[in-house]
Fold:
Amino acid sequence: MSSPRPTDNMIKCMADLIDNGDVVYHGLTSPLPVLAMVFARRILKRDFTWASVIEHIEPIVEKVKLKPSTGDPYVEPEPLGILTTIDAFDIAAKGKLTTMFFGAAQVDEEGNINLTVIGDYDKPRVKLPGGAATAYLFPLVPKIILWARHEPRVLVRHVDFITGPGRLRIEKGFKHLLCTNKALIEFTSKGPVLRRLLPGASIDDVLKSASMRIIVPDKVDVLEPVSEEEMKVIEEHDPQGIRYLQKMG
Amino acid sequence: MPSPKLVSLDYAVEMVEPGSSITISGITFVRNPTLFTAALIKKGIKDLCFIDREPGFALDMLAAAGSLRCIRAAMASFELYGLAPNVRRLAEEGAVEYIEDACGAVIAGLRAGAQGVPFMPARGLIGSQLLELHEKKWGTWRRIRDPFTGEELVAVKAINPDYAIIHVHLSDEYGNAVIEGPRFEDELKIRAAKRVIITAERIVDWEVLRGFKHTLSATSIHVDAVVHAPRGAWPTAMPGHYEADYNAIKDYIESSREGRAREWAIKNILQKAQ
Structure:
């Protein structure tokens, strides 16, 4: 068994944000959210509803196995049945889809995220894959868990393009959280606040590795590193290490 | 009795006019109508406008072949392999009009299209810069007020693609067709499109369908043509029949780097099937 890397601690950090009673959904290109959902169910024993872009509701969690696509039905086998995306998003429109994960190419101080373009929309320096459900779900889902690499060009003051609006979420009183490979950050009306350090990261490192200005409160806790037992479970679901392809360390 | 609609792949491909709008079944690497798409790019079709929610492999085949004038999608991804390689190239070169949509809005537009109404109100979307682009640049969304409560909503203009190409598990020769497992928006696409071409892993006698053993995703009333297309989604997954072939997908990406993606698709998808 290999020792845990920042990616693995990030998975644990994300898992801990899933509460009992949540209705949780993950999208495409989401190996970390899939493993966070596995971690929350198997290790933290959280009682939540499992739904996803695959449209398989309540697969057999013990049989979940990562592949290069998290839209692949064979990732989450033997579900109770199909919950179509149409259905899931109607549930979201009524506020009943409680928890969703989003990756981001850029996140800014207001919690806005960019998945559209770097540069100008019409003359992009880099074309990004697109926001998928971001624009639709940001105003609707009470708890969003973002994940991103902790780097100055990712954690920015202002995003190049607002695919998902963070400020509107904060005004609504929604939970808006960001897990990086160094920290857990919560977006508030005062700005991004450091809530938790990941093992091995210092406050100084967290602040210096970001262009966004992060508020440091008096009390910041530190995540307990992924244990041997927990690592065994993560590896059982991702023996090939597909999660590390997201380059979170 | 409906009339039979079973046609050859070549015949069905000829139905698709250049310059028209097209939507297809599945998502990224699941149940794409790849066999049909390979035949379409071999024919050298041009100027298509492509619309879908979360397309991947078959969209990229069309992009590689220079078949597209515009792309409208909420995400065009090869997931852990990055952005769909040929879509990215076209978008960054400005060689295609790229309309970034959002999942809930695509669903609302298809729903309006299926119901035969001009638009569908949707929640969400407000606050995203995509809203400004859709309102001012593309004319596809507009902010409206609920006439009863005054709530601000977004009206999404109906989406009625000229063609929907839908790969299914089984169909009879009339187009009574069954999708097993995830259906995505395919049932809406079937109802929103002006013409529907079904490609099916299996063609069955309609007596096989009798007695509620299967749920029909399309009926003969919706469908214009049926093509027998075994392994017609490869290398994307056909739930219950075969898994996605990631080695083939990686091979395709490699061919794209060398500008040979169209040739790869014709050789490995179309010629192998014949």
Q: What stands out?
A: The CA atoms of residues 15 and 40 of chain A lie 5 Å apart. Chain A has seven helices and 14 strands. The first helix of chain A runs from residue 6 to 15.
